[in-house]
Design a protein that fits this description.
single chain, 369 residues, alpha/beta, Quinone Oxidoreductase, Chain A, domain 1, Rossmann fold, seven-stranded mixed sheet, 12 helices, 30% helix, 22% strand, disordered N terminus, binds NADP nicotinamide-adenine-dinucleotide phosphate
Length: 369
């Protein structure tokens, strides 16, 4: 094993892929080189890194941005600074850092990264919270803050509510007095999942099928209809969720887990509308009518991508710091916890990749590096 001038270990292992394809087939644990430390570089020992859907899509070659090949997988994680270049002022050995940008390649034991690609985080928060902080909680925080002005007592509806983002939405909303209506897919152990999300602070948990049932109106006896809907699924789940949004409300799409387009009733003559009309006749419940989203309710459809937000705010470090401080305060106060997770030893990475791609896993796979 080589030693650097400063006496720091220089051999590393990483999860490398040389071509795009199914993750289990193309990702391999290999020895990788650690670059020489330049003046503005930081040598980091990685501690833990999750497997997120975007990591999987990047390996498959289907994500909006792709790393040049060969690439080390992973976009999120936390590491400890081992040494810094002579012109690095804001970081020192022992500090914890997380990626400030996408594409860092966090599934490795150590690496040398330019300082501008890293963000310091306090080391008094749990390591697994830090490892999963830069993507999902930030996305949840921004979507709750940037699209509608929500006050305590207002409500938000979201699908894939048991996802990493969904769990963060529930907790951040709860801490702000905002009510959440949480949509999940039906599954054999649904009561257990409902209990878990309620324990996190969810106000209501419903299945995708329940979105079309008359019982939904009972929810809106105690809380107002949502002004904000957060969509991570697409297809029918999204169309059904949209019908509960207030007129002039906003739906933010940030994921497409069902790999189906977002369909929005325009006026009442599409196939989905026809199906809704049948239900309306059957149940005679105007509140469940399609209320054609675009023309009669003027809903706003928006999109959000954390990567783009970071690019747009590269010169606005104050906004980044305000967000990170707020999230770390929530973590310290016990209001924002590590997502439900499975800790996986690095060498068992194939199990983590497989589990991350299975439906109903309900557990973020976190590689221990
Ligand atoms: N735009 C952004 O900036 C941004 C940031 C973060 C994440 N995301 C995206 O948000 C999504 C969730 O990410 P995450 O890390 O929170 O995910 P995660 O923790 O791995 O959870 C995945 C979620 O997707 C659901 N799901 C999977 N396949 C589905 C399907 N066919 N239909 C409906 N639901 C399905 C799962 O539900 P089950 O339990 O029912 O399988 C689970 O709730 C991903 O698409 C990710 O790329 C986007």
């Amino acid at each position: 094993m080589q030693r650097a001038a400063a006496g720091v270990l220089r051999a590393a292992r990483g999860l490398l892929y040389e071509r795009h394809g199914e993750p289990v087939a193309v990702v391999q644990l290999k020895d990788i080189e650690v670059a020489q430390l330049g003046d503005t570089d930081v040598h980091v020992k990685m501690l833990a890194a999750p497997v997120n859907p975007a990591d999987i899509n990047m390996i498959q070659g289907t994500y909006a941005i792709l790393s040049p090949l060969p690439a080390v997988g992973g976009n999120e994680g936390v590491g400890e600074v081992l040494e810094v270049g002579s012109r690095v002022a804001a970081l020192k050995p022992g500090d914890w850092v997380i990626p400030a940008i996408s594409g860092l390649g966090t599934w490795r034991t150590q690496g040398v990264f330019p300082e501008r690609m890293l963000l310091k985080v306090p080391s008094d928060i749990p390591v697994l919270c830090a490892a999963t902080l830069s993507v999902n909680p930030c996305t949840a925080y921004r979507m709750l803050a940037d699209f509608e002005t929500l006050a305590p007592g207002d409500s938000v509806i979201q699908n894939a509510a048991n996802s990493g983002v969904g769990q963060a939405v529930i907790q951040i909303a709860k801490a702000s007095g905002i009510k959440t209506i949480n949509v999940v897919r039906d599954r054999p152990d649904l009561p257990k999942l409902v209990e878990r999300l309620m324990a996190l602070g969810a106000d209501h948990v419903v299945t995708e099928e329940m979105l079309r049932k008359p019982e939904m109106k009972d929810i809106f006896k105690s809380i107002p209809k949502p002004r904000l809907a957060l969509n991570c699924v697409g297809g029918k789940s999204t169309t059904e969720m949209l019908r509960h949004l207030q007129p002039r409300g906003t739906m933010v799409t940030y994921g497409g887990m069902a790999k189906q387009p977002v369909m929005v009733p325009a006026q009442g003559n599409g196939p989905i509308e026809a199906e809704h009309r049948t239900q309306r006749l059957l149940w005679a419940l105007p509140s469940l009518s399609p209320q054609s989203a675009f023309i009669f309710r003027d809903v706003r459809l928006r999109g959000f991508w954390m990567t783009q937000w970071r690019k747009d705010h590269e010169q606005d470090q104050q906004s980044v710091a305000t967000m990170m401080d707020a999230l770390c305060q929530l973590i310290r106060g016990g209001h924002l916890t590590t997502p439900a997770c499975t800790q996986v030893p690095f060498q068992d990475y194939k199990e983590a990749l497989e589990a991350a791609m299975k439906p109903f896993t309900s557990s973020k796979q976190i590689l221990l590096l």
